[in-house]
Amino acid sequence: MAEMAPAVAHKAPTGFIRKWIFSLDHKVIGMQYYFLALFSVLLGMALSIIFRLRLAWPTEVWPLLGKIFPVGFEGGPMTPEFYLSMVTMHGTIMVFFVLTTAPQGGFGNYFLPIQIGAHDMAFPVLNMLSFWLTFVSLIVMVAALFVQGGAPISGWTAYAPLSALGEIAGPGEGLGQTLWIVSLAIFCIASLLGALNFITTTINLRAKGMSLMRMPLTVWTWFTTAILALLSFPVLLAGGILLLLDRLGGTSFFVPAGLVVSDKIISHSGGSPLLWQHLFWFFGHPEVYIAILPGMGVASQLLSTFARKPIFGYRAMVYAIFAIGMLGFFVWGHHMFVSGLSPYSAIAFSLLTLTIGVPSAIKTFNWLGTLWGGKIRFTAASLYALGFVSLFVSGGLTGLFLGQTSLDLMLHDTWFVVGHFHMIMGVAAIFGIFAGTYYWFPKMFGRMMNDFWGKVHFFLTFLGVYAIFLPMHIMGIMGHPRRYAQATEFQYLAATQPFHKFITIATIVTAAAQLIFLVNLFWSLFKGRKAPENPWESTTLEWSIPSPPPHDNFGGKHPVVHHGPYEYGVPGASREFIMQTDPPN
Amino acid sequence: MSTSIAPPENETDLKLHDGSVGRGHNQGDDRWGGGDSDRWGHVGPSRYGSSSQSNRLAMWLCMASITMLFAGLSSAYVFRLGISQNVFSIPMPRALIWNTLILLGSSFSLEISRKHQRESHQAAFRGWLMVTTLLGLTFLFVQLSIWRQLASQGIYLTTSPHSSFFFLLTGVHGMHFLGGMLALGYVLVRPWHHYTTKNSGGTALDLTAMYWHFMAALWVYLFLLLFFWRY
């Protein structure tokens, strides 16, 4: 059969459109995903600065913003509804178009086929479709900002009945919310196509010698993430269909009977808002791991490379990745402890939630074990991998608080939760993306990024995110509810206002520090030092080919793998590191 | 096939190959495409593009995700009816029983058609494929006429939770079924010579059959859920 197979999946395209726009090449599609996520993260960050202004200075008038969003600033200061719409869009854009898109769609697309020795994904056309559907989905989502009534105000979780009622529930709950649902439905389909491709490619297109237990841990995390996406996005789609029918078809899946909104009795009857929460969180919890797992893979790959040691406990790492992924399907109830859930189910959900601490601790222990006694090379990439571990631990520990039913009663829906999930799901995953960027940029674009400015960027960002998110935990313990545009009217929260100011200033400073990254990225793209084939002396397959790789990755050759992924400093070896493709000893 | 099994290089390899060697390397077994790499081990060189093995796996994954979609919808159904004050449920339309039989018949005729394809009987293959297509069209037509019949009796999407889910589940199933019809149309119009060599037309036909039977099984499940499942 091998003789019959064509040497490459498709010929190198010549025209601009087939090469850079409607490309079938997984590397170009990976870059398209990456830049889509870059646009989204800047947008999401800008939105967060807008709502942070409202929290720090609730009564301040912002003439410039008022000109851009006249509806949101009617009568002077930012309206609470506008604040909520900014929060909703910030969360939605960050979760879906950044944390789901960059690590998996971006790096996964670019490097999964190369790391397993394939010439492309199993289904290049599906891959292209998957990206362009994601693009359409983003356009629809961004459009929600500019339609009448503005963006939805129901948060990234779109809790019913607020999200199910239409315009009567507030500005943004009309067309804005409908666009939000349609956008996510498109996103679901795009993710399903992508997941299908990742799983098939990993199972079927591995090069000769690339056994499962020789796959880099990045491949394991992309593979597991794809399984999570394949099984969880359809449930979000199911919820989305029901929600859309409630809004447009007059059904009552999520709208309870006898609901009175704006002095009007709602004609729907008998539905359950909790049903939406069950469907949403059955998707929503695996989604957390969809965001964070690829970061774990990148951290493992980088810590091993830059500590010049084999990863500590490779097999344990693989099993831990899978355990985290699979357990993630059975813990959605911990988002609903205060919803009136039966205490018996709550205990089951709580126990399963705390069980995830075990594989997470295995991973952390193994990262530390990898670093122990290593000759660590400090680069921007390795610093970000270390930062990932730090944030994963800080964010993970507060998960143990929230996973207990009794403690969660107190902390639920406070800023403590906001601090927790931003640490572990937000910035930890972002640190994984930054680590991946500094590490793989030379391979992707054939040029080096500036390492000094990379380190400056790291230290500012690292301190910045702790300055932003640590105080939130304290505010949560003080009882500050989340989602409130303003808490100055509450006597008992008077002491939290300085925290809000501090966090807002830290946000602006940290956001400004990202300019260093952007300048470094685009400057290096055109003016950076030419990158050698293997600047980090790494062992995986992508470092055995030119930077940037040729169209079919391996120049018409079929790579053969003889070694595990992380053979650094092997005693008795002729070289300090052994590439996976090096001949057997 | 020219490649041979690479000798295990270390202990890790030995463990992995154990068991997979005997399984994947049967040339006559084309369950996984008769390929040169076994499923979980790593022996042959990788193949590029859409091999039939990848296509089959992708179809299984596709069915897994559709299963999750309907698992989500049916758990919503069980949850919603469990708390409902409005207990009106649609009396089972008689035509649904006949329609279920029509759909199962189409699965049956598709299998007869595949048997003729394997035995290279072109005329019989096409004939039974036409029968399958007609049965499929009949199924969709009857589903639509049941919708119209219910509407004429004053039963709509919003009448009760049961009616909401009836229209929703039959509708979403119908849309997926339409995909199966398109695939069937595709295998119907392909020239015969595609079906005489292995792994080209045969694969498309196999995939269509997998999906078609899946749609039939899914319908039987939905039918039982909607009209026979009770608290």
What would you say this structure looks like, in words?
The complex is a heterodimer of chains A (585) and B (231). Chain A is mostly helical. In chain A, a hairpin with an 8-residue loop joins β3 and β4 (577-578). Mean pLDDT of chain A is 94; it is low at 1-7. Helices cover 61% and strands 1% of the residues of chain A. Chain A has helices at 16-21, 26-56, 63-68, 80-99, 101-115, 124-143, 175-204, 217-248, 273-307, 314-327, 343-355, 357-371, 380-402, 405-411, 415-445, 451-477, 497-527; strands at 260-261, 264-265, 567-568, 577-578. Chain A is built from 17 helices and four strands. Chain B is mainly alpha-helical. The longest helix of chain B is centred in the N-terminal third of the chain and has 31 residues, at 52-82. The termini of chain B are far apart. The relative contact order of chain B is 0.12.
Name its key features.
heterodimer; A: mainly alpha; two-stranded antiparallel ribbon; 4 strands; globular; B: 231 residues; mainly alpha; 8 helices; 69% helix
Largest sheet of chain B: none
What's the total number of strands of chain A? Answer: 4
Number of strands of chain B: 0
Number of helices of chain A: 17
Query: Helix and strand succession of chain B?
Result: HHHHHHHH
Determine the fraction of residues in helical runs of chain A and give it as a percent range: 55-70%
Arrangement of strands in the largest sheet of chain A: 1-2
The whole-number mean of residue pLDDT values of chain B reads 80
Q: Report the mean per-residue pLDDT of chain A as an integer.
A: 94
Helix content of chain B: 55-70%
* Structural classification of chain B: mainly alpha
Shape of chain A: globular
